[in-house]
Write a structure and sequence with these properties.
The chain is of the alpha/beta class. The chain has eight helices and ten strands. A hairpin with a 2-residue loop joins strand 4 and strand 5. The longest helix has 16 residues. The radius of gyration is 18 Å and the shape is globular. The chain starts with a strand and ends with a helix. Bound molecules: adenosine-5'-diphosphate and magnesium ion. Adenosine-5'-diphosphate (ADP) binds next to helix 1.
């Protein structure tokens, strides 16, 4: 589903975002991307989102090579990959309902489809009661739940979240990760960049740890800073996924 082959990124000022990296993420996986600040987490996610181009290598999403994608096909890629940011990025003058509905309107969904889909998404993120609230009337956690609903409303098969709990207290952060887990249970492939060790350790998901632009660990059911659970089968598991 997500495949990187020899992908690297060096910024124009010479900073290394990512050394040549190959990686395979299967459909339906939940993956934490961890590592210290400046290690390259956002670079990896931005490459997958096609926000920045790689210097070398190939990135394919759903068997589509996004590195050579012609301009008119980029919007299809954007629909395939929903995104959530640390700072929520909601429209301040629209209600929770309208923030989510707006994402469907911009892709020309029919009003009837919108009326059906938005309540389902609100229910999934636990915000049914807050549909009529404006962002400033919500807690940080509620704003992030709204952003998650908006990111998945067009049935994106992939959700990418860059430090989605970076502005939240630990209890709220846990709730947000549970919402992301619920999204994953619906079949969405979820990638979450975070440096919150306690959360990563409590979820037992695949953990890809980056250090200075290199993947230094890739564990299934992993933990942060827990090399004893390194999964020696990860390569054969990845290879199986290609078949
Ligand atoms: P993380 O998300 O793990 O904090 P980043 O991917 O943002 O790390 O950054 C990785 C490295 O790339 C850092 O050294 C950072 O300074 C550098 N970097 C990131 N974005 C840019 C940019 N737009 N221009 C130049 N250097 C950048
Ligand atoms: Mg970052």
């Amino acid at each position: 589903m997500i495949e990187l082959t020899g992908v690297s990124k060096i910024y124009s000022n010479g900073a290394v975002g990512l050394h040549p990296t190959s990686l395979y993420i299967s459909k339906g996986e939940f993956v934490f991307v961890t590592g210290n600040s400046g290690s390259g987490k956002s670079t990896l996610l931005k490459l997958i989102l096609k926000e920045i181009p790689p210097c070398t290598g190939r990135i394919s999403i759903n068997s589509r090579d996004i590195t050579t994608l012609v301009e008119r096909k980029v919007p299809y890629h954007r629909r395939d990959v929903g995104v959530v940011f640390q700072d929520f990025r909601l429209l301040p003058n629209k209600t929770v309902y309208d923030n989510i509905a707006f994402a469907m309107q911009v892709v020309q969904a029919r009003p009837r489809e919108i009326r059906q889909a938005v309540p389902v998404a609100l229910n999934l993120v636990g915000l049914t009661e807050k549909a009529k609230c404006y962002p400033h009337e919500l807690s940080g956690g509620e704003q992030q739940r709204t952003a998650i609903a908006r990111a998945i409303i067009n049935d994106s098969p992939i959700l990418v979240a860059d430090e989605p709990t970076g502005n939240l207290d630990p209890g709220t952060a846990l709730g947000i990760m549970k919402v992301l887990e619920a999204v994953n249970c619906k079949g969405v492939t979820v990638l979450v960049a975070t440096h919150e060790r306690d959360i990563v350790n409590s979820f037992k998901k695949r953990v890809i740890e980056i250090n200075s632009g290199r993947i230094i660990k890739d564990e299934f059911e992993g933990g942060y800073g827990n090399p004893s659970s390194y999964n020696i089968f990860s390569k054969s598991k990845q290879r199986r996924n290609f078949i």
